[in-house]
Amino acid sequence: MYKNILIPIAGDHGGTTREAMAAARFLADPDAKLTALTVVETVPGHVAAELPAGLIERAREAAEAHLRELVGDTMVPVVVTGHAARTINEYAAEHGIDCIVVASHRPGLADYFLGSTAAHVVRHAPCAVHVVR
Q1: Rounded distance between C-alpha atoms, residue 123 and residue 29, angstroms
Q2: Which of 15, 48, 120, 132 has its CA at 20 to 30 Å from residue 25's CA atom?
Q3: What is the architecture of the domain spanning 2-132?
């Protein structure tokens, strides 16, 4: 059983997100901390300069509201900015996470060449990783 579990949730989360949340609850000690993390991808400066003022901030606020609605009071909702896989692993290392429960889709051909977020997390995580499909 784990005491500090991280559940990364993509903004366009699919059907396996609820299963990942349920798996995290199952793997958790009774007094465990469960953190739901959404990573808002960093927008390059040259792109951000062309976007309407406040668009990035509104997108982050929308992600925070959506995550709070999804997890309710069962988990701590956290929204950060960065590269998804790298940021998930950095967050885990910096916050003493002992298990990451990540939802994953079935890999397609593009994933074999580019790699998926879940695959990168599994390869580089500083802790145990449970993948839900």
Answers
A1: 25
A2: 120
A3: 3-Layer(aba) Sandwich (3.40)
Average pLDDT per run of 10 along the chain, which is 133 residues long?
95 79 96 96 78 83 93 94 94 98 71 68 96 88
DSSP string, the chain: -EEEEEEE--TT--THHHHHHHHHHHHEEEEEEEEEEEEEEPPPHHHHTTSPTTHHHHHHHHHHHHHHHHHTTSSEEEEEEE-HHHHHHHHHHHTT-SEEEEE-PPP-HHHHHH--HHHHHHHH-SSEEEEE-
Residues forming beta bridges with residue 4, ordered by sequence position? 33
Neighbours of 102 (CB within 10 A): 28
Structure tokens at 32: 């465990």
Q: What is the pTM of this model?
A: 0.89
Beta bridge partners of 81: 40
- Other residues' Cβ atoms within 10 Å of the Cβ of residue 52: 7
